[in-house]
Amino acid sequence: MQLRYQYRLYPDTAQRQRLARAFGCARVVFNDGLRARQDAREAGLAYVSDAELSKRLTAAKTTPQRAWLGEVSSVVLRQALADLNTAYRNFFASITGNRKGPKVGPPRFRSRKDNRQAIRFTTNARFAITAGGRLRLPKIGDVVVRWSRTLPSEPSSVTVIKDAAGRYFASFAVQSTDEPLPEPAPEVGVDLGLTHFAVLSDGRKIDNPRILRRAGKKLRKAHKALSRKAKGSNNRKKAVVKVARAHARVADARRDFAHKLSTQLIRDNQAIYVEDLSVKGLARTRLAKSVHDAGWSAFVGMLEYKAARYGRTFAKIDRWFPSSKRCSRCETVATAIPLEVRKWECACGAVHDRDINAARNILAEGRRTVAAGRKPAAGRRREAETLNACGGDVRPPLAVADADEAGSLRGAA
Question: What pLDDT does 97 receive?
């Protein structure tokens, strides 16, 4: 499995200038290649191949207008063209229907006003980690790295990133072998929500940290200060950085919470089952801010890749499965239960907490799905869905019912 390990970089003033030069050169090469292909298309000429763009880059270095491209590593420029080629391949695969997921638009020009920049060095660039623990980058120098953990293997590439808050990071691509953990007995179903971030089938409830809401006062203050600054002034540039830093703290805290919780669940359980939520659909409702603040998609993605890495079972349950309306004792599906109803009583006499009952149903459905040796319905639907620009589907498609399904999926949620 290929993973990314990210570390904070602390370049000095001279190294920051060299990195800025490398960011600018990579951006220019990307934009030159994009412009060449757009001009060829408008003129009715053939598509400019990857090899032709590489030849033009080599020739451009000998011209007075682009001679300064030779001041940076050639690998950085080649990788900029590789990014452009990948963007075009994704675009062509999307419009021809060969790419799963939402539609992808054509590549766009990179802006020099964008505070987020990145360059990539591969093994051909001969980057190295020195004996003193610094990252040696060609034509940049030895950059100080804060090593929070050791790399599991030799990296195949490193991406140097500058975010909107002005921080620098090194992202290493490494090949990591699977590390199976001891097999504990428990299995768990996870019901994600807003009142509680996650409710587990064993009755535990994890509070929603509401990180964005808690930082609301500081964010409002930073945005108000930014709105009062004159456009184009140095004070406005400083205010932009302050806003970016405030948002970066929120994103870092949310990511840290998701990593710690997902690692705990993977370590303590042999199998984890979650519901396949339509986050994009929920983000179009009045709860959009709270949905984005929760960060469900990132959390579920962490569960998925960590389960694959450590030999755990992971499955998503169909979003149309009636987890909240189904009695976990007698499996009777009740009529529509309003969202404000947090406890309800089944005809069999069982009194249910809405969220705990949903988590137990998710656990039972996940076990049935895995035991039957078939993909979860959510996975089957994603393979057959029509590509669209709106993300997740909001209607269940017509499909042949499985043998263990009772009734229709429509309206089951």
Answer: 86
Average confidence score pLDDT of the chain: 85
Spell out where 29-156 has E strands: 117-122, 128-129, 135-137, 141-146
Longest Cα separation, the chain: 84
- 32, 83, 187, 275: the active-site residue: 275
Sheet holding 141-146, edge to edge: 117-122, 157-162, 168-175, 2-10, 141-146, 135-137, 128-129
* Alpha carbons 237 and 246: distance in angstroms, whole number: 15
The answer to whether 163 is a known catalytic residue is: no
Give yes or no: 187 in active site.
no
* Residue 191: active-site member: yes
Whether the pLDDT of residue 134 is over 50: the answer is: yes
Write the DSSP string, 322-351. -TTTB-TTT-PBPS---TT--EEE-TTS-E
**Pairing relationship of beta strands 135-137 and 128-129 according to DSSP bridges:** antiparallel
Q: What is the pLDDT of residue 375?
A: 54
| Residue-wise pLDDT tens digits, 47-102 | 999 999 999 999 999 999 999 999 999 999 999 999 999 999 999 999 988 888 78
Catalytic choice (83, 191, 276, 318): 191
Could you give the percent of the chain with pLDDT greater than 70? 90
> What does the DSSP assignment read for 11-38?
--HHHHHHHHHHHHHHHHHHHHHHHHHH
CB 95 within 8 A of CB 101: no
Amino acid 54: pLDDT: 93
Residue 20's φ and ψ, nearest 5 degrees, are -60, -40
Q: Report residue 410's pLDDT band, with 50, 70 and 90 as the boundaries.
A: very low
Q: Give pTM, 2 decimals.
A: 0.79
Long-range contacts of 123-131 (CB under 8 A, 24+ apart): 123/156, 123/157, 124/75, 125/73, 125/75, 125/76, 127/158
Dihedral of the alpha carbons of 363, 359, 254, 257, in degrees to the nearest 10:
-70
**CA 223 – CA 225 distance, rounded (Å):** 5
Share of the chain above pLDDT 90, in %: 59
pLDDT for position 324: 81
Helix/strand number for the chain, H first, E second: 11, 14
Neighbouring CB atoms inside 10 A of 325's CB total: 19
